[in-house]
Design goal:
binds pyridoxal-5'-phosphate, 8 strands, alpha/beta, TIM Barrel, about 220 residues, eight-stranded parallel beta sheet
Length: about 220
């Protein structure tokens, strides 16, 4: 298991950037991973996990949480409005707030449920048509609208285009966060989390480098 390797690399990258390693949260992305790969990470004491789909997460995490105690679950994937309530009940943090309709659902449900997960606004920094997220030029206005709904927006999130140099996208996301007063930056995956940390990432989302390739 390479959880400790990844932790060491995060520490090194943060230190090299003049940052405190404690300011970088490692989200272990357990989507599509079999139980025999996830249990060792839980047994090692890690409690922060990321999932892409509400249904998949709901099918496995309640049992693991019963066994290992409270876990800190992050939803990373696109969210359909009709699954917003289930997501709010299962996840502590949602990284994929990407449209006003979803923001309005969160606001309404937060009243009923009496609380709301922490939220990241997903920004489509590459302006890719097939990818979710607010376009960079619309981000400031969207963040304002989400705040006007009293939503707990803590940061911004991006997934750079596959073949692009991620550094430019991380820098752009950091700039959007800074000018909107948002301290949290969800960026960096298995192949580029060190670059993301150099650009200020506070939440890195690492799957295959911890668990192995997804089947
Ligand atoms: C799957 C996924 C990850 C993890 O990807 P790896 O390359 O396995 O580290 C991170 N973020 C999001 C949004 C994902 O969907």
């Amino acid at each position: 298991m390479s959880l400790s390797d990844i932790r060491a690399r995060i520490t090194a990258a943060a230190t090299a950037a003049g940052r405190s390693p404690g300011d970088v949260t490692l989200i272990a992305v357990s989507k599509e991973q079999p139980e025999d790969r996830v249990l060792p990470v839980l047994e090692a004491g890690h409690r922060v996990f990321g999932e892409n789909r509400v249904q998949e997460a709901a099918g496995k995490w309640p049992a693991w949480a019963d066994r290992f105690g409270a876990v800190d679950l992050h939803l990373l994937g696109p969210l359909q409005t009709n699954k917003a309530k289930a997501a709010m009940e299962l996840f502590q943090t949602i990284h994929s707030l990407d449209r006003l309709k979803l923001a309005r659902s969160f606001a309404r449900l937060a009243q009923d449920l009496g609380n709301c997960p922490q939220l990241f606004v997903q920004v489509n920094t590459g302006a890719e048509p097939q990818k979710a997220g607010i376009l960079p030029e619309d981000a400031d206005a969207f963040i304002q609208e989400a705040r006007a709904l009293d939503l707990p927006v803590i940061g911004v999130m991006c997934i750079p285009p596959v073949d692009a140099d991620p550094a430019r996208h991380f820098a752009q996301l950091a700039e959007i966060g800074a000018r909107n007063g948002l301290a949290a930056l969800s960026m960096g995956m298995s192949d580029d989390f060190e670059t993301a940390i150099a650009h200020g990432a506070t939440h890195v989302r690492v799957g295959s480098a911890i668990f192995g390739a997804r089947r």
